[in-house]
C-alpha cells in the first residue's frame, strides 16, 4: 500500500497556536502524543490540547482522529472543538519524539515535519484515578458503568471502533459524568464491520484476542475491553500488583465472583469470551442494566 501523503495544495497553519493559546501545564504523555492544559486567549476558556508529531506519509492516518472526533457528539464522549496542523517548528520549545518511529519519546528532541493539534474539553481526571480516590457505593458503580456502555453504544452507532478503551482513556467532568476520549487509535469499520491494522497497538491488559492475534478490530473488541473495565469498577484492589494479578486470573477464568460482581458475573464472562460473536453488544448490555433497574 502506498504511503498516504497530504493532498495537493496542502498548507500548514502558521502560528495559530502562538496567536490564540497559552499552554499552561503538561497533563500527560503516551506513545504517540503529549497532552497539555491550555487557555484560549480569545474566549478565556481552558481546554485539553493533544500534540501529535508526524511525518507527511502519516497524514491520512493522523487526521483520522479529527474526522472521528467530529462524528461523535454524545453526552458520554469528550467534547471535540477543533483540530489543525502546523509545521514542526511551531511548538514553543523542544518536543520530545522519535523521528524514526513517529512516536513521542523521552530521549530524542528532533524537530518533526508536522504537528497535529486536537482541542477537546478539559476533564478533571481519568477513571483510573477516580476509582483509586473515591469510595463508591453500588448505585454509583452501576451508574458509572452504564454511562461508559452508553458511550460505547454511541461510538458503535457511528460504525467506529475505539481500539484503546481503558480506564486511562475514560474521563470524568465536574459533575462526575463519565466520558470516553482519546481516539488516536480509533478506526472506521468497513462494510464487513472490520477495521484492519498493521500493528496491535493499545494497552495489552484491555486488548481483545482478535486484535493481538489477527490485527483486526471489531465492535465486539470494545466489548472485551468493557469486560475488564467492569471488573475494575466493581472490585477493590489494594495495590497495582493485585489489580494486575486479579485481571489475569479473570482472563484465565480462575476468579470467583464476590460481592456486587455476583449479579454481573454471567454478563461479565460473556464480555470476555474468546469468540467475538459470543460477546453481547453494547445495546444488549445497556438493556440488561436497565431491566435490572441499575442504570
From TrEMBL:
A cellular component term, taken from the record's GO annotations: cytoplasm
GO molecular function, one term: protein kinase activity
Entry-linked Pfam families: Pkinase (PF00069)
UniProt-recorded name of the protein: Protein kinase domain-containing protein
Organism (species): Cuscuta campestris
Domain of life: Eukaryota
Keyword tags: ATP-binding, Kinase, Nucleotide-binding, Transferase
Matching PROSITE patterns: PROTEIN_KINASE_ATP (PS00107), PROTEIN_KINASE_DOM (PS50011), PROTEIN_KINASE_TYR (PS00109)
Keyword Phosphoprotein: no
Domain Protein kinase: 21-295
Residues the entry annotates as binding ATP: 50
InterPro entries for this protein: CC_SR_Kinase (IPR050339), Kinase-like_dom_sf (IPR011009), Prot_kinase_dom (IPR000719), Protein_kinase_ATP_BS (IPR017441), Tyr_kinase_AS (IPR008266)
Amino acid at each position: 500500500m502506498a504511503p498516504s501523503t497530504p493532498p495537493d495544495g496542502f498548507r500548514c497553519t502558521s502560528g495559530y497556536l502562538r496567536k490564540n493559546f497559552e499552554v499552561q501545564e503538561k497533563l500527560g504523555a503516551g506513545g504517540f502524543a503529549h497532552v497539555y492544559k491550555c487557555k484560549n486567549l480569545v474566549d478565556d476558556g481552558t481546554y485539553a490540547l493533544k500534540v501529535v508529531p508526524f511525518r507527511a506519509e502519516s497524514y491520512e492516518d493522523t487526521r483520522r482522529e479529527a474526522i472521528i472526533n467530529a462524528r461523535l457528539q454524545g453526552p458520554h464522549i469528550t467534547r471535540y472543538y477543533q483540530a489543525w496542523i502546523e509545521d514542526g517548528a511551531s511548538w514553543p520549545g523542544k518536543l520530545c519524539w522519535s523521528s524514526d518511529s513517529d512516536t513521542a519519546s523521552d530521549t530524542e528532541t528532533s524537530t518533526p515535519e508536522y504537528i497535529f493539534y486536537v482541542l477537546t474539553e478539559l476533564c478533571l481526571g481519568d477513571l483510573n484515578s477516580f476509582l483509586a480516590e473515591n469510595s463508591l457505593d453500588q448505585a454509583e458503580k452501576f451508574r458509572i458503568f452504564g454511562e461508559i456502555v452508553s458511550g460505547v453504544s454511541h461510538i458503535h452507532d457511528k460504525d467506529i471502533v475505539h481500539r484503546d478503551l481503558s480506564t486511562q482513556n475514560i474521563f470524568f467532568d465536574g459533575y462526575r459524568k463519565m466520558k470516553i476520549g482519546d481516539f488516536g487509535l480509533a478506526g472506521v469499520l468497513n462494510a464487513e464491520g472490520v477495521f484492519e491494522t498493521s500493528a496491535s497497538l493499545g494497552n495489552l491488559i484491555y486488548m481483545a484476542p482478535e486484535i493481538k492475534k489477527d490485527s483486526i478490530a471489531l465492535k465486539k473488541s470494545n466489548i472485551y475491553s468493557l469486560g475488564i473495565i467492569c471488573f475494575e469498577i466493581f472490585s477493590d484492589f489494594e495495590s497495582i500488583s493485585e489489580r494486575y494479578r486479579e485481571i489475569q486470573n479473570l482472563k484465565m477464568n480462575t476468579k470467583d465472583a464476590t460481592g456486587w460482581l455476583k449479579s454481573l458475573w454471567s454478563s461479565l464472562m460473556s464480555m470476555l469470551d474468546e469468540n467475538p460473536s459470543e460477546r453481547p453488544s453494547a445495546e444488549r448490555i445497556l438493556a440488561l442494566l436497565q431491566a435490572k433497574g441499575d442504570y
